[in-house]
Design brief:
Elements: H1 2-23, E1 26-29, E2 34-37, E3 40-42, E4 45-48, H2 59-68, E5 73-77, H3 80-83, H4 98-107, E6 111-115, H5 147-164, E7 175-179, H6 192-206, E8 211-217, H7 220-226, E9 232-238, H8 243-251, E10 260-265, H9 281-293, E11 297-300, E12 315-318, E13 323-326, H10 345-355, E14 375-378, E15 380-384, H11 385-392, E16 399-401, E17 416-422, E18 430-436, E19 440-441, E20 443-448, E21 451-457, E22 463-469, E23 474-480, E24 494-495, E25 499-501, E26 504-505, E27 509-513, H12 531-538, E28 547-553, E29 561-564, E30 571-575, E31 578-583, E32 592-595, E33 607-613, E34 626-630
Parallel strand pairs: 4-5, 4-11, 5-6, 6-7, 7-8, 8-9, 9-10, 10-11
Antiparallel strand pairs: 1-2, 2-3, 12-13, 14-34, 15-28, 16-27, 17-23, 17-27, 18-22, 18-25, 19-24, 20-21, 20-23, 25-26, 28-33, 29-32, 29-34, 30-31, 30-33
């Protein structure tokens, strides 16, 4: 009797499982121009939130606010470079745990749209590509023209896609669709065989029970290059575009099926030296109302932008001015949720607009996080960059080479690299002209005899500076990678050509890779310093020498805060060893850096602030040598040209 009951229960469980799997489906109904979710007409109202731009500590808070705002889905890119920082070494832990992010969204009742790449743009460093891809300078990206590139993509997707497969909607997960590549129509290659290769690869791992789609701008030229018939073609456009016109273009490539705006822009991105970008909430709401009135599905890009922590900002390029335009550290995007996750007037207005078309969930909007002003923190100079170099290049380097090598060629991804050589004896106590042929990427500080003499910005082309050469015949060039182009083109960093001194090619270089995280290793002798050394540094004549500064403060609140740098020029900021990102208030528009609460801990007192100041610190008088933690962000400051060159948005 017990055995019979056991088999009966097993039979009912099997029937239930079969019916459950049959009932879960998310497909396109081409006859009725809509999505079908479990056989019923459905449209998604989604928002972009990048798990890699928001601390895991805050994922749930942000997702709950999105749901409370009327969204039924969340969209995210997958950034290859954070998951495979070193070729063949994978990271899916902590803030890089994309599977946990998707599972959390599912537990909160949100569907998920994944933009898997391999290229993502996103104004992210190198468009999400890992820098080691361009160690071979002959590689061709986003094309079938280079077997090495497609082999790398196959290897990466063979790791990523099996992680996504169990999370597909048909398999009981929340993923309803997956994007292939990104805005490929705006890329010069226009290689449809490449899109077919990616589609085959995605189908190999994900199967046929998932919608694969593309997105491009609302122009026929973009869609012509960016689509193939077997991938569902969608468009993107902002609040100033007439949805009817944009969707009419989409209909030429997707004649039947749901209308979809995969990137609806409620704001816009920011670049250094360009005024902060905003979009009126009323205009965004009006266009959204029109989109929803057409029964279209829509995704806000961004719903919360988050932060380009560390060195993860990408860059654009002003073709008319031949000038690099690095993105700022904040990716606030003037989105409905701020960089720090706070709801805004735009959040409220868009929620009201959505409520005209969809029933909102009955739930409270989570409260905004508290912000705390810790006030002023006294800073002191503890080492110059060149003094710290022996710590920074451990355990690698220096690399010896006849001619300069790029960052990627010596295995460095981000940050700073130092090139050192001996100046020929013939230049002893003379004036000379230093020139970099080819390209310098991106910004270089030139030392002669360990004294700073000049600054170069490597766009455009050749750069020339005068130098005074004395008794100490050592040339050091400190190069900063300010963020690779996010457009998916090769953007190797460092010195990409020969360095000449009044026409003489300089040879026999020592090249030092650097890792700023070495400063915070447990066995590092970087901190603290003796009072005697601090006094010695404070009395240095060279106030423009790139240097590290240190300060401490007591943490008495588990709250977010913002780091303000009055009088400081340009550099990198760390709190408790966490790389907050770049600061550059003398160029603007960003004045403060976001410090999330998870970086601070009451149990870790005192908290430490470290700055790498590259240009000029306000420390001539000790009372001016401070930073300040404030409770209100400032990303809308005045703007000034980069290194004396006029920049346009």
């Amino acid at each position: 009797m017990a055995a019979g009951l056991k088999y009966l229960l097993f039979f009912f469980a099997l029937v239930y499982a079969v019916r459950f799997s049959e009932s879960r489906s998310f497909v396109i109904d081409y006859k009725n121009d809509c999505f079908l979710k479990d056989g019923e007409p459905f449209r998604y109202i989604s928002g972009s939130l990048h798990y890699f731009r928001v601390p895991r500590f805050y994922w749930k808070d942000r997702l709950m606010k999105m749901k409370a705002g009327g969204l039924n889905a969340v969209q995210t890119y997958v950034a290859w470079n954070i998951h495979e920082p070193v070729q063949g070494q994978y990271n899916f832990e902590g803030d890089a745990d994309v599977v946990s992010f998707i599972e959390l969204a599912n537990s909160l009742g949100l569907l998920v749209i994944v933009r898997a790449g391999p290229y993502i743009c996103a104004e992210w460093e190198f468009g999400g590509y890992p820098p080691w891809l361009v160690k071979n300078t002959s590689i061709i990206l986003r094309s079938m023209d280079n077997h090495q590139y497609t082999t790398y993509v196959q290897s990466w997707m063979g790791v990523l896609l099996p992680k996504l497969q169990p999370l597909l909607y048909a398999n009981g997960g929340p993923i309803i669709s997956v994007q292939v590549e990104n805005e490929y129509g705006s890329y010069f290659a226009c290689d449809h065989d490449y899109l077919k290769f990616l589609e085959q690869l995605f189908r190999q791992y994900l199967g046929n029970d998932i919608i694969l789609f593309t997105v491009d701008g609302d122009s026929e030229a973009d869609l012509q290059c960016g689509t193939i018939p077997s991938l569902y073609a969608t468009v993107d456009f902002g609040a100033s575009t007439d949805p009817a016109k944009a969707f009419a273009v989409m209909r030429k490539f997707s004649p039947h099926g749901p209308l979809v705006n995969t990137e609806f822009y409620p704001g816009w991105l920011d670049r250094w030296s360009v005024p902060h970008q905003t979009r009126p909430a009323s205009m965004v709401a009006s266009t959204l109302d029109k989109i929803l009135s057409m029964n279209a599905s829509v995704n806000f890009y961004m719903y919360e932008g988050g932060t380009n922590f560390g060195f993860m900002n990408g860059a654009g390029y002003n073709k008319s001015a031949h000038f690099l335009l690095p993105s700022i550290t904040s990716y606030d995007y003037d989105a409905p949720l701020t960089e720090a996750g706070d709801t805004t007037t735009k959040f409220r207005i868009l929620k009201e607009t959505i409520a005209k078309h969809e029933k909102l969930p009955v739930m409270p909007v989570p409260a905004n996080t508290t912000k705390f002003a810790y006030g002023k923190v006294q800073m002191s100079r503890i080492r110059t960059f060149l003094e710290a170099l022996p710590i920074l290049y451990l355990p690698f380097g220096p690399v010896n080479a006849t001619f300069p090598l790029t960052m990627e060629q010596i295995g460095q991804n981000y940050g700073f690299i130092v090139y050192r050589t001996k100046i020929p004896d013939s230049f002893y106590q003379s004036s000379a002209t230093l020139s970099v042929s080819g390209l310098l990427r991106d910004r270089a500080i030139i030392y002669v005899g360990q004294v700073r003499q000049a600054t170069m910005f490597g766009y455009p082309g050749n750069q020339t500076v005068p130098l005074d050469i004395g008794d100490f015949l050592q040339l050091d060039i400190l190069v900063e990678n300010m963020g690779r182009l996010s457009g998916g083109t090769d953007d190797a960093k460092g010195i990409l050509g020969n360095v000449t001194l009044s026409g003489t090619i300089l040879l026999n270089w020592q090249i030092f890779p650097t890792n700023l995280e070495n400063l915070f290793a447990e066995d590092s002798s970087f901190l603290p310093l003796s009072d005697e050394h601090k006094t010695e540094l404070s009395n240095m004549d060279d106030s423009f020498a790139p240097s590290f500064f240190h300060g401490e403060f007591l943490v008495n609140s588990s709250s977010d805060t913002f780091l303000q740098l009055p009088g400081w020029s340009k550099g990198q900021a760390f709190v408790n060893g966490f790389n907050l990102g770049r600061y550059w208030p003398v160029v603007g528009p960003q004045i403060t850096l976001f410090v999330p609460a998870n970086v601070l801990s009451i149990s870790q007192n005192p908290a430490r602030v470290v700055l790498l100041e590259l240009d000029s610190a306000p420390c001539e008088f000790p009372e001016n040598c401070y930073v300040e933690f404030v409770s209100t962000p400032s990303i809308n400051g005045s703007v000034h040209p980069i290194d004396g060159s006029q920049i346009e948005a």
